[in-house]
Amino acid sequence: MEASTRGSHSMGVSVVVPIYNELENIPLLYEQIHNVVSQLDRPYEIIFVDDGSNDGTLARVQEVAASDQHVKVVEFRRNYGQTAAMHAGIQYASLDVVITMDGDLQNDPTDIPMMLAKIDEGYDLVHGWRKNRQDTFINRKLPSKIANWLISKVTKFPIHDLGCTLKAVRREIAQELELYGEMHRFIPILAHQRGARCVEVVTQHHARRFGTTKYGIGRTTRVVLDLLTIAYMLNFFSSPMKLFGRLGLGCLMLSMASALGVVGMKLAAGVDMTGNPLLLLCVLSTIMGGQFFSLGMIGEVNARIYYSDQRKQPYAVRSLTNFEHDYDPSVPLDRRV
Ligand code: UDP
Ligand code: MG
């Protein structure tokens, strides 16, 4: 590590870039990032996470790493997806501020100094807004406009562009987040929920120069499902126990009231209750109340198991290049010393 402490402006920068089959993009990508971060007068590292590429991308980034010690490479054993790759890069980052970005030159590293200035102002997370987004309208911009609008309504978190990967986050906050599925796009919301001071800045966006997008139409449905999960996680919906517990409680109250009615009518008025609808209501609501309660309980246990399961490492690492510390990739991150 080079000279580090020079007041608040000395915070080091870890640039994290997930890459999957981006062979042609690597030389220019490295050059662009290098040109910006080497001029910052801060310690820096550039972490490429190779997400199981099969087009020679790995060899290309390892060549770059051989000539520049600031470049570090995490090699996945197979393709795990952009979120897992970003999660790994964040976990392996060692400097104060993590910058995440795409590896296809759609983000512009010249935005980095402006984002770091915001962190220096005291923000914990700076997220980009691709106001001038260079993607097709019908299948990319329109669905994401609708999704962003919906998500900011549901979460009450004002945000224009959750899909923008260019972000600057204080490392300790980034490393606290558990990312899976398509979760990387919810980083600002998750961080905000944990008390991070977030700010949005307008960032540049370019059309993809080489290669094609790695996603098809299936992504939209995955994002919607993840939105539902996150809404649940952040307690925007009740927990299963609360939802079904309330239903169960309602049913049991109904069953008690009807039971009182049944007993009262039989004892006080001597009505023969055989086949009486009130008796039917009493029996049905008792059974339903019990059912709803147990459903809630099962749901609650399930939800807990599900989330504690996420603590398992969501990817497997084959090799690490240029890392100072000898990590053992087989040890889950939260159990490493
Ligand atoms: N990516 C990845 N793993 C994947 C798919 C994508 O690491 O399974 C990387 C990809 O190499 C790029 C970034 O994630 O650096 C964004 O991918 P892409 O450009 O395909 O997404 P889009 O810009 O279309 O949202
Ligand atoms: Mg892209």
Structural account:
- The protein has 337 residues and is of the alpha/beta class.
- It has 2 domains: 13-139 and 158-214, Spore Coat Polysaccharide Biosynthesis Protein SpsA, Chain A; 239-309.
- 45% of the residues lie in helices and 13% in strands.
- It has 10 helices and 8 strands.
- The protein has helices at residues 26-37, 57-67, 82-92, 112-121, 137-155, 171-176, 187-193, 218-233, 240-267, 277-309, and strands spanning 13-19, 44-50, 71-76, 97-100, 125-129, 167-170, 198-202, 317-321.
- It has an 8-stranded mixed sheet, with helices on both faces.
- Helix 5 (137-155) runs parallel beside helix 8.
- The chain binds uridine-5'-diphosphate and magnesium ion (MG).
- Residues 18-20, 22, 51, 79, 81-82, 85, 102-104, 106, 213-215 line the site of uridine-5'-diphosphate (UDP).
- Uridine-5'-diphosphate (UDP) is lined by residues 18-20, 22, 51, 79, 81-82, 85, 102-104, 106, 213-215.
- It holds the Pfam family Glycos_transf_2.
- One of its GO terms (cellular component) is plasma membrane.
- The chain crosses the membrane at residues 243-265, 277-298.
- Keywords: Cell membrane, Glycosyltransferase, Lipopolysaccharide biosynthesis, Membrane, Transferase, Transmembrane, Transmembrane helix.
Please summarize the sheet with the most strands. 8 strands, mixed
C-alpha geometry: elongated
Uncertain regions spanning at least 5 consecutive residues: 1-7
Q: Can you give the helix content as a percent range?
A: 40-55%
